[in-house]
């Protein structure tokens, strides 16, 4: 058993060496425009932004290995921007030394990640009142957080009872809505009427938000020429879709940076909670922030959507379906949120990996 642990550490060290070296970061090519956006929205200079991307890349590799070492005691993980380290929660304090040797910052927690996921699954199966705006596994708090409109905490009581001791209620002034009325560049038109933004190009078409259209709906491109039609779509429950394009359109790995050079997507490795992330949308352009939580359920007026990722990035109506990237790694497509890009807000995205897996699609990369 000891030899296996040593061997695993050696494998991890090799993976980290190739993943997080300055040369590797340079090879992925975070553009000056991307670094500038991180500087604007995260308060970093270009050097700090590049270093953060390097640290987050290391954390993404370490997260997978640390979860394996923690086993049943795994309590979740997140990237701590202040220390540049991956924090790993465990219910078994005896495993903290091993995690620390791997390079993680261990933290003893009360609840296993599997228990939190199970509690959230109970909420997903429940009928939520309109006063409840959503719920998610709050990795840092080691709890399931239920968000409710201010002054309406009693409305969440039934959900708290279903989730049990792992649940906490947080009041909010947010009122999540769908960003369906998209406008602006890198847009596409549905049935020559509503608009949404392209998420990511895949072989044969592109992915976007599910609430943008239904199978059979026709799509025209930003130049108003025929583009294709929705072949698959899921909403509510999920919020993703696949648009099959015609032979006039060619899939590329580009994401519109709005005012800067296109970001070239190189893969789709999922980032950790706490990692920086940037969003491209046709109404508000390019904005950055951080991943706050994963697997959130959002209770929109039109129906609940589960499995979304919560961020503090702003967005506005017109940004639906747009691309989310961390460095040059594709992360997801815009679902909805609250607030705006003047006062700030919360925005949720549908993770792209679930879309690719569900529909058997291949992401276009450069």
From TrEMBL:
Cite the InterPro entries for this sequence.
Pept_S1_alpha_lytic, Pept_S1A_streptogrisin, Peptidase_S1_PA, Peptidase_S1_PA_chymotrypsin, Streptogrisin_prodomain
The protein's UniProt keywords, in alphabetical order, are: Disulfide bond, Hydrolase, Protease, Serine protease, Signal, Zymogen
- Which residues does the UniProt record annotate as the domain Peptidase S1A alpha-lytic prodomain? 113-165
> What span is annotated as the signal peptide, if there is one?
1-26
SUPFAM superfamilies registered for this protein in UniProt: Trypsin-like serine proteases
**Similarity-based family:** Belongs to the peptidase S1 family.
Protein's recorded name: S1 family peptidase
> What is the organism of origin for this protein?
Lentzea sokolovensis
